[in-house]
Every structure is written in C-alpha cells, then in structure tokens.
Amino acid sequence: MNENSFSSVIDSSKSVLILLPTKPYFDQVAAGLALYLALRETKDTNVICPSPMLVEFNRLVGVNKVTSELGNKNLTIRFADYKASGIEKVSYDIENGEFKLTVIPKSGFASPQKEQVVFEYKGISSDTIILIGGANETHFPALSAKDLEGAKIIHIGTRALVSEARREVLSFAAPVSSTSELVATLINQSGYKLDQDTATNLLMGIEEGSRDFKGPDVRPETFEIIAQLLRAGGQRLPKGATVGEETVVEKSQEAPKDWLEPKIYKGTSVS
Question: DSSP assignment of 151-210, as one string?
Fold first, then answer.
C-alpha cells in the first residue's frame, strides 16, 4: 500500500483532528462532518471550526459535534461560583479500577453543588490533522498551536493550499465539483463505512458545492458518486430542515480509483 495514500495515513494515526476553515462554505462543513462520521468508529476524531456554525448548517448530521475550542487532551474540573476557601482538602482513590475524586469542605461550609461542576478540556493530542478547504494557512488559526507542531497534515479541497510554513502537507486537492465529492471518493477508496448519515451530508454538500450540479467542474464521475450516495440511503434535505436522530445503513459502494493521487507540498512550494 502506498504510504502516502489517504487510508495508510489515517490507519497509522491514533487520533485525528478535522479543521474547518474560517467562515466555511456549506460544502466544506458537509465534507468535514461526513469524514468525521466515517472515522469516528475507529479513530478518536474531533472537528473544530474557528467560526460559529450558521443556521443553514443545521440540516447536516453531526453539526452539534463541531466546536470552536482546541482541546481534548487534559480534563479540568472547576466549581463555578464556589469559593475555594470553603474546601478543606481534595483526595482521590482507585476503586474497582475506577478513578474517584473526593472534595471535602471545611466545617460549616457546604459542598459544591452538581450544577456548579464544570468540565473543560485544555490542549490537544492529535497526531494527524485534516484541513478541509481553505486557501492558505491563515484560514486555520489552530495550526499555530504548539501541541500540533509534530502532527502530520493532510489537505482536502478543490484547490491546493498555499503554505508559507516549513511543514509538509500531503495534498489530495483536485479540481472537482466540490470538496464533498472529493471526500466521498476518499471514503470509498479507503474502504471506510458509508452509512446513511455520511451519504446524506455528502449528497447535500455536492449539491451546494456544484451549484445544483451545474458548476463547470461537474463530471460524469460526479453523477456516478451521487448515484452511490443515493444507493447508500443519502437524502436531499430541503434548506431550513434540521436533522433528527442519526440512522445507520451498512451498505457501501466503490468509487473510481484511477484519478485521485496525493501530492506532498512543503513550505512555499505549494502553488
């Protein structure tokens, strides 16, 4: 297997961070969430976007999983509106293999209430980063985080990413109808599960990104992929609709394998 193929990079990863660009298009969000749905069962996967999700994105499955906070490494527990001076000591035990934290208040002070307990994550521990869309590195501010300095970087988009940093970028950019079409091809070529929710996101992403299938980069292969997504249970939800519970369809289809090849870029060699 080609060590630079999409599947080989993902299979060798322990955790994957999907980064959406600043102010992403519908197609880019659809592609990122579809990839998240396809990878989450086998990899620790997170989706981050520096911009808030728009109302129009609510019809995409998994949109509630997108966060603006770069953190999944260290868990922090704090007590909101509770004075630390009221705590006598904090201890922990391991009981039946489970971690137990005990907060003991001082005499005359009440214990922190359940509604005052706040869980937060700080830092990030992903060894592979997938950039969705974007024109250059400024569209992905999270790349400047020190915790991500040693991570492998993959870029998926309809045009190559302009990079000024001295970091290698494995690019799967291709001039196709939409980023969602590209992600659909990568999912099928890699053998990842294509369920109904993933297919639905990709189908709507292709429709939006290709301007209702009328864009200049729409190819015969575009409609072949659309047919595969429909056979997998993909649905074309109308604008303004919101998704309900996630459903699963186990059927998957193969996509054409002869047109997509990765390219490695480093620093300003990207054009």
Answer: -EEEEESSS--B--SS-EEEE----SS-HHHHHHHHHHHHT----HHHHHHHHHHHHHHT
